[in-house]
């Protein structure tokens, strides 16, 4: 493991862990970027929904960076950390680590800041409860 991935993964459990399928491979032998974004959105949605105590929707993806390719047989772990909570929105930093070579190597493959908005019963933005924002 590299020092970078050690700091990312220590004392944290991944929100999502998944193995890409052969159908997720592009013509270069790497995983499609859209597949990776979908996994990140799923993981971010899990965290956002828990934090805002209800439904939410993705409204923005900021500062997305693809740092290294994801290969077939990699085990993908998505880590999440809340960066900020506003009146109706929450920003979550998502980091994706690929475990390769039967666990011998961990590679940080992408990172992004996803913003979600809390939704009411009519699917409109709703305020995030004060207790949630202070936690």
TrEMBL record:
Organism: Blastomonas fulva
Taxonomic path: Bacteria, Pseudomonadati, Pseudomonadota, Alphaproteobacteria, Sphingomonadales
CDD domains: BFIT_BACH
Protein family: Belongs to the acyl coenzyme A hydrolase family.
Protein's recorded name: Acyl-CoA thioesterase
Keyword terms, alphabetized: Hydrolase
HotDog ACOT-type domain: residues covered: 10-122
Keyword Hydrolase: yes
């Amino acid at each position: 493991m590299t020092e970078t991935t050690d700091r990312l993964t220590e004392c944290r459990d991944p929100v999502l862990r998944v193995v890409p399928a052969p159908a997720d491979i592009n013509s270069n032998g790497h995983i499609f970027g859209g597949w990776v974004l979908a996994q990140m959105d799923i993981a971010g949605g899990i965290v956002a929904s828990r934090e805002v105590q209800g439904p939410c929707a993705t409204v923005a993806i900021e500062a997305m960076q693809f740092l290294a390719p994801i290969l077939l047989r990699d085990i993908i772990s998505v880590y999440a950390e809340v960066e900020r909570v506003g009146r109706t929105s929450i920003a979550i930093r998502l980091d994706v680590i690929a475990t390769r070579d039967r666990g011998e190597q961990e590679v940080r493959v992408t990172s992004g800041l996803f913003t979600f908005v809390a939704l009411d019963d009519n699917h409109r933005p709703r305020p995030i409860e004060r207790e949630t924002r202070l936690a």
